[in-house]
Design brief:
Layout: H1 2-15, H2 21-53, E1 58-62, H3 72-78, E2 90-93, H4 98-106, E3 112-113, E4 123-124, H5 137-142
Parallel strand pairs: 3-4
Antiparallel strand pairs: 1-2
């Protein structure tokens, strides 16, 4: 029917058509070890969050796997304890100095500075220079971004 075709066409516009053969093959090949890679990412994130939590140069670590997280109890109920609490950590340092942050970023050896979460690499994102760069200084201060 015309309604079905219209709905189908709109879905294809949003989701895309079909993958090409090599992309489909690579996705299928990677699926067999996805659970192992995600579990390892979560273990590393948990370890890093715990290590940074009491570091003297760290103001705050936001990670649902830490008991200090305001939603830790919810995370314990909702997330698979065999896998972990995710692989994204937010770390707020005890300084609000842009130059000091840039120096810190330049010294990173494992993480790359980027804003995309879809890549293969460990990344560090500095919101005041990327995702929140368009905010005024007063707006950043109201968000406690320095």
């Amino acid at each position: 029917s015309e309604a079905f075709i219209s709905k189908f066409f709109n879905t294809i516009k949003v989701l895309g058509g079909t993958l090409n053969g090599i992309d489909a093959y690579l996705i299928e090949r990677g699926m067999s070890t996805l659970h192992l890679r995600v579990k390892q990412q979560c273990l590393v994130a948990q370890s890093l969050a715990e290590m940074l939590h009491n570091h003297p140069k760290v103001k705050e670590v936001v990670y649902p796997g830490l008991p200090s997280h305001p939603d830790h109890e919810i995370a314990k109920r909702q997330m698979n304890s065999d896998i972990g609490y995710g692989s994204i950590i937010c770390v707020r340092f005890n300084w609000a100095d842009l130059e000091r942050s840039r120096k810190f970023a330049a010294g990173l050896r494992v993480a790359e500075c980027a804003i995309s979460l879809g890549g293969l690499h460990t990344i560090a994102c500095f919101p005041f220079e990327s995702t929140h760069a368009a905010l005024s200084e007063s707006d950043r201060e109201s968000l406690d971004m320095g």
